[in-house]
């Protein structure tokens, strides 16, 4: 199978502008067919009148669809999610608590400044 | 949109867009409030300031409109567009002599207005002639700019909602009202790209670049379209141009590195990834690609060094851990 990383990268970009995912706080990259997604995953223009459960359900649905779409792109062999606010555990998407996320970010900043 | 403004009251862009909607709904006072809010949030927000000028014109608050446009002329004395706006404003207030002087300056500073006024029969034999019919026509065009922006925002909003055909219609309206505004063509190109209509996307992106050849992101946009078409030779050409114009954008160097790496030009790819990392040392994705490239070239020591650096930041990355173990 062809593994043209730039072609995959362009197709992910095109896919993202077609969705309601706010990709302004997200990074994505491709290495020999393996797609990496990092940063904060959130939906733009999602109004649920403060109903957090509804918001969570919708985000989880979007995450599953998004993952499926990326995996179906020609040349993609694997997808690695490194979101700060969502992680996949035993096949289920679970939110990472705000506090935990902030600690991670701080830790990351500290480590990155030592690189 | 009102809800969105309530949720994000500190987004100047949103305040400006909402004010435009209100203006076209005829809610002038509310529109004024929101333009002013946008300007409080970002005092250098030129579009919001010009829109406020148009609004004052619509409200027949000529003096305030004039003050805004004059302040812009002070900031950008050679900006033909603002002289053109002042010319139209003076025409509306019956100050014909001032109008002629401003139109003359608009023509002097921007070649577009020479053709524009020539077509309207106003620029003849190197002079401005304001005959009655042209004057009437010019008075009508004063709202073209904010109207075009309005259609542009509606188009972008519809595109985000997945209604791409309607979005294209709105963006075309914007482009026809202000044919010289490259950003409308860029947005139109983006919606065509999103629709999968690559040939039209290329056409619009190229049109936008014809108007503003220094818009580096425009070349990157073209590169992505060619990427989706698997025409990587053209993609490489345009990404190089994008990098040349915006040498400080780490993301563009990263994308150029992918194109080189796909063509097995590993040294060039490494060079671009290192540049991306010099610009943004926290650009982990660039470091991952760099490690893998070193590994492919059997530069084990350098690959191990990059992988270790990555694992310091993301110790849970099993892919990188396995790669490191394999070459340790």
**Whole-number count of domains of chain A:** 1
Strand content of chain B: under 5%
Number of domains of chain B: 3
Q: Largest sheet of chain B at a glance?
A: 2 strands, antiparallel
Explain the overall architecture.
The complex is a heterodimer of chains A (115) and B (328). With 115 residues, chain A is an alpha+beta fold. In chain A, 43% of the residues lie in helices and 23% in strands. In chain A, the strands form 2 sheets. Chain A has a 3-stranded mixed sheet with strand order 1-2-3, covered by helices on one side. A two-stranded antiparallel sheet of chain A has the order 4-5. In chain A, a hairpin with a 2-residue loop joins strand 4 (86-89) and strand 5 (92-95). Chain A starts with a helix and ends with a helix. Residues 109-115 of chain A have low confidence and may be disordered. Chain B is an all-alpha fold and 328 residues long. Chain B has 3 domains: 2-144, Serine Threonine Protein Phosphatase 5, Tetratricopeptide repeat (Alpha Horseshoe), CATH 1.25.40.10; 158-246, Tetratricopeptide repeat domain (Serine Threonine Protein Phosphatase 5, Tetratricopeptide repeat, Alpha Horseshoe); 254-328, Alpha Horseshoe (Serine Threonine Protein Phosphatase 5, Tetratricopeptide repeat). Chain B is built from 20 helices and 2 strands. In chain B, helix 16 (250-262) runs antiparallel to helix 17 (266-279). Chain B is elongated. In chain B, 45% of the residues are buried. Classes of the chains: A alpha+beta (115), B mainly alpha (328). Chain A binds chain B through residues 4-7, 9-11, 13-14, 17-18, 20, 27-32, 34, 36, 38, 44-45, 47, 78, 80, 82, 108-109, 111-112, 114-115, and chain B through 3-4, 7, 160, 162, 190, 193-194, 223-225, 227-228, 230, 232, 235, 254-255, 258-259, 261-262, 281-282, 284-286, 288-289, 292, 309, 312-314, 316-317, 319.
